[in-house]
Design a protein that fits this description.
33% helix; 2 domains; alpha/beta; seven-stranded parallel β-sheet; five-stranded mixed β-sheet; Rossmann fold
Length: 270
């Protein structure tokens, strides 16, 4: 029988991290070997299973990634931390020969380029994805196809009020893919005047305006509105629970085992 994929989770005590812990623990062929969070977390040293509301796993929450990698010898690190933290974590993992699956958004193109370089140098595969929900990936794919026919487009993305980066990685990625089908979407028909700066949102690839909503009660939603003479097309994806991301995360963990370089975007592995 093939051996289990040994998985270490960073940001393990956070909402997304706990969801990943439960998914990995329940998945056949996966073995949870490590859980890491901030060193000042009061739960350091406790069994991560108890923290996540499942049975004891035998894995204690650690505050030191390097030490955890040395002790647990993981195959893959899954990271849903903060942009400034995930860069350091990914460098540590990749240089140690540990593959990385990263769901943190807010990284710059330069950050991703640097991680791609390190991944290639160490032949340690990595998958960086702004969204792991399969429905969101299909939304972007459909929008890319529709962009061949609709000359104008705007994106409205909705997230919880604790999300720090705006616009979201998903909306930026959506615009990038849409711009592959249409280099530039229609400019505003009249020269507008913003009476309040930012009213028309930010402008991404292809001259696509992005509007960011941050409110409690929301997890992650996005709608892409496309227009042409006499009609509009709206493609929308809604996330009601963080478990929506788990099939994509588990798929990425399996796929990254076959990689020796960095792949950006889940759409490239499905």
């Amino acid at each position: 029988m093939p051996k289990n994929i040994n998985v270490l989770v960073c940001g393990a005590a956070g909402k997304m991290g706990q969801c990943v812990i439960r998914a990995v623990d329940a998945e056949a062929g996966f073995k949870l070997v490590g859980a890491v969070d901030r060193s000042e977390n009061p739960n350091i040293g406790k069994d991560i299973g108890i923290i996540c509301g499942i049975n004891e796993t035998g894995v204690k929450l650690s505050g030191d990634l390097k030490e955890a990698i040395t002790k647990t010898n993981p195959d893959v690190m899954v990271d849903f931390t903060m942009p400034e933290i995930v860069i350091v974590n990914a460098q540590t993992a990749l240089k140690s020969g540990v593959r990385a699956v990263i769901g943190t958004t807010g990284m710059t193109k330069d950050d991703i380029s640097e991680l791609s370089k390190i991944s290639k140098q160490n032949q340690s595969g990595a998958i960086v994805a702004p969204n792991f929900a399969l429905g969101a990936i299909l939304m972007m794919r459909f929008a890319k196809e529709a962009s061949r026919y609709f000359s104008c487009a705007e994106i409205i993305e909705y997230h919880h009020d604790k999300k720090l980066d705006a616009p979201s990685g998903t909306s930026i990625k959506s615009a990038e893919l849409m711009a592959q089908s249409r280099k530039e979407f229609g400019r505003d028909s009249v020269k507008g005047k913003e009476t309040i700066k930012g009213a028309r949102g930010s402008i991404a690839d292809g001259n696509i305006h992005i509007h960011s909503i941050r409110l409690p009660g929301i997890i992650a939603n996005q709608e892409i509105i496309m227009g042409m003479l006499g009609q509009t097309l709206t493609i929308r994806h809604d996330t009601f629970d963080r478990t929506a991301f788990m099939p994509g995360v588990l798929m990425a963990v399996k796929q990254v085992m076959e990689l020796d370089h960095l792949v950006y975007g889940l759409e490239n592995i499905i």
